[in-house]
Amino acid sequence: MRGFWPVFKRELFSLFVTPTAWVLIVVFLILQGFHFYLMVRHFAQNPELSVDQGPIQAFFGESMLFYLPLVLLCPGMTMRLFAEERRSGTIESLMTAPVGSTGIVLGKFAAAFTTYLVMWTPTLLYIVIMRRAGEVDWHVVATSYAGVALIGASYLAIGTLMSAMTESQLVAILLSSLVILGLFVVGIGEFIFDPGIVHDFCSYVSVWGQMSELSKGIVDSRRIAMDLSVVALALFVTVRAVDAWRWG
Amino acid sequence: MITIEGLSKSYDGTSFAVRDVSFRVQKGEIVGFLGPNGAGKSTTLRVAAGFLGATAGRITLAGHDLVTEPLKARATIGYMPETVPLYREMRVHEYLHYRAELKRVPRLERRAAVDLAMGRCRVVEVADKLIGRLSKGYRQRVGLADALVARPPILILDEPTAGLDPNQIREVRSLVCELGREHAVLLSTHILSEVEATCDRALVISKGVLVAEGTIDGLRKLSRSSAMRITVGGTGDAAALLRAQPAVEKVSEDRPGSYLVTWRKDVENTDGATEEVARVLVGAGFGLRELAPVKASLEQVFAELTAEAAA
After folding, report:
1. Per-residue pLDDT reduced to its tens digit, A96-114
2. Which of A105, A127, A212, A247 is packed most tightly, with the most Cβ within 10 A?
3. CATH code assigned to B225-295
């Protein structure tokens, strides 16, 4: 874990002094603002819907617009982490400093994850707005944001791994988007295959299923285990990849 | 301080970039690692700094084995890579603070350590500038400050003067000489005169193999002129006069009145021979216009060193 703090601080610094984080956050907020507006308008025009569902559930659990930005924005946050260090050669000074590979990988991942959480923070305003118009189920809000954090963590871990696979940020963002999109598509299998092993598998890995449950306040520990496994596996492989560069 | 035993490095498993290199660097010693481009200098330094793993061999830095105690071993070095990679988006003092923290300089001493390193490398005046905006010379010095900031007992510098102008080269060299008093310094270069100017000892590497380990005096002798360019004015056969000198091996006239004179190998005192030639030419009524030693090229020196090593 040596080196975690300085790497974490530098990475965060670098994301916020360059336009990267700001551009991602602005794009995200514009898209989610539009998304939220659509949801609220939809429910305002169809009051009969509000009996067993509300805009918050729909925002987190039902809409494609929740996932699409994440497919590109999460890889955008992680693409530089290792690719840029290797392209510019700074990886050489980083890896000859007395720090371990675990510290470097976790520091970088934590910086991306912090940026991700910062990106979501302004959406808490939506909850405040909803509260003015009616009742808000805080349990649902809590589980929804937990889901947001879990999905983000797994997407960012995948992005961190892909950034370590290449020296090109473009390749890194494309690879991670593809993998994330792939996971998403596998999840859709739930609605395609007949009940059986494949159907079950698809429904377990489905982020859609996960968010739809969490947005209703249902917490399934298998989902959490799935997300945390993805994070652990991706970061473990990244640490091994970083170690492997020494022997290239 | 630095002990390298039987180091080999292969990138692809079949051919070796460095093969069976062994040497030591003591405290207070500046050792130059000399070789043409592509000889394996950078590879050796990268392995020694712990960036690359050795295919075979053992590296000990200040008593810590690089494989069994990698963090302790890496904590004893300040390494400046050849390309001096820096984060362009950071300011100089921010970068050095970050590096000091990374190298585990205690929080309370960090400011003093950064100030000291900036002072020694003369980058105080650009402390608040973005690294991306600095000139090559300043970036080189920031890289050097980075290597120094944690006050490591060992410095490994990969071509510290590459790409600098003559003034900056002189400054960096004098800084390295100063540092050599308290650190063990290993630096690489492909410039012979740089080794002469800064180092106590030189290791010569060629095609991945250590071909010679020489004192500076030995190298100086080799690099001393083995030939002389002489241009004369006036009529007469100057070439015949030159050929008659006992110290002269060969005379070739490359344009009228201009001769390339090669000394015989066994001539020890080329200075005396030069004076003698000048005296004879002037005595014979020739006007002496140019008398310039022709420095042996690095390749020639290598060839001689390799031949010596084989003998």
Report:
1. 999 999 999 999 999 999 9
2. A105
3. 3.30.70.100
